[in-house]
Oligopeptide transport system permease protein OppC
Amino acid sequence: MRRALGRLARNRGALAALAVLALVALACLVGPLLTGHDPGRIYPDLVRTAPSLRPHPRPEAIAPAVERLAFRMRVTAEAIRVEDGILRVTLSAPAPINERALSYLPRSDLFGPTTVVARDAEGRRLSVEAPVRRLYFPLGTDVLGRDLLSRSLVAGRISLLIGLVATGVALLIGVTYGAVAGYAGGRVDAVMMRFVDVLYALPFVFFVIMLLVFFRAGLGLILIAIGAVEWLDMARITRAQTLSLRNRDFVRAAEALGLSAAAILRRHIVPNTLGPVTVAATLLVPRVILLESFLSFLGLGVQEPATSWGALIAEGSRAIESAPWMLAAPAGFLVAILVALNVLGDGLADALDPRLSAGR
């Protein structure tokens, strides 16, 4: 294991992939707390805002925004100006203005709390001030005005969680099932592997649709569907390794010493299959994430208010002509994770290759 870790440490591509995975996972974990936006918060005046590092609202957009808010308040906005980040505007109306209507300004998320600095005797004309907020959307906003960076990072939590949990379930079931089948051999092996073949023949999408008849679509359904299918490959890999190990001298010696089948599997068979299994697991995580994205794209996966990269990609595909950044943002995160996992899997395959270990 030390030699394998040394070879992995000399593989720059694998180290770069590991760094990308760590950075994306850390960003998904703590990033939403640092963006300044709640993932579910809607900015009605900033719908489909293009990605930019400039703050919003833009100077040229302040006057139209104030006029729209004034129309809702049933007043007329006059002498609109911004000085030192403070909005100053005069509001007039044929009848006395109810000051409670001024709450429209801070409610828009573009301006802070309003202050009345002057009024006429009849209350038909008010001079008000309000601070102009500075909102940043590096990846833009969606069709409802929600920050795409925050939503992509929160969606990454769901996608990575599904990838890791489903892979863990596949490892637990597949390694146990394959090791038992390979070590038992004979009719037990034949019956167990025919059951695997039957599950292979079941179309995955049909299986998910069948589950939807009995369960509600959501995160739990995805974990059940993916976990029920993805362990099959792991079982075959482990069985093949076990068949090559069960006639080795150290296994025969353990049998001669009277160790039980469970102890031999636990202490001798399973530990010697971890090399290929570890490589397969790193390649299984991106496949699980792609499956989740596929199900969410079809509307069979994660449901609102929760979201995932697949769900965001589905939303972005529907608005690709008017807002292409809605597709580019979550797709960029997904591609980065998939490429990094595949590169890391290749690096682990090279590091754990027994022929390389024998050569050294």
About this structure: The chain has two domains: 2-34+141-359, 58-132.
